[in-house]
Amino acid sequence: MVYLFMGMWNFWIFILHYLIMICLLSGGMNGYMYISDKPACSAEVSSPIKDTKMITRNKVISVLYKCPPLHPQIPRPPEGVAMPQVLIHKKDVKPTRVLWSEKSAASAR
């Protein structure tokens, strides 16, 4: 599980919300992303810079990503797709190329 911590009014929160909606719509095909209701950090955090005020009213959210369950990948086109007929003719097959080493060996004889 992956954790992401972000401020409530950060610009990326809107993009994150969009990504969470995509995860829900896909049925978790590529994993699940959700916002945790548990507090990520306390409301007051001591400042990392010496002689500065304590950070108050800290608003950090916790976003969790859960990997998808193991399942076999079966590639197939979606329902309703009309697959074109595959046709290969003799003119489509190119002749095999002679390697440069074989050319130079033949001309040296």
Write structural notes for this entry.
This protein is α+β, with helices and mostly antiparallel strands and 109 residues long. It has a three-stranded antiparallel sheet, with helices on one face. It has helices at residues 12-25, 100-107; strands spanning 2-7, 32-36, 60-66. It has a domain at 1-71. The chain has two helices and three strands.
In terms of topology, how is this protein built?
Blueprint: E1 2-7, H1 12-25, E2 32-36, E3 60-66, H2 100-107
Antiparallel strand pairs: 1-3, 2-3
Protein name: Xrn1 helical domain-containing protein
Domain Xrn1 helical: 25-92
Keywords: Membrane, Transmembrane, Transmembrane helix
Strand count, sense and barrel status of the largest sheet are:
3 strands, antiparallel
Radius of gyration (CA) equals 29 Å
Spans of at least 5 consecutive residues with low confidence: none
Described by the principal axes of the CA atoms, the overall outline is elongated
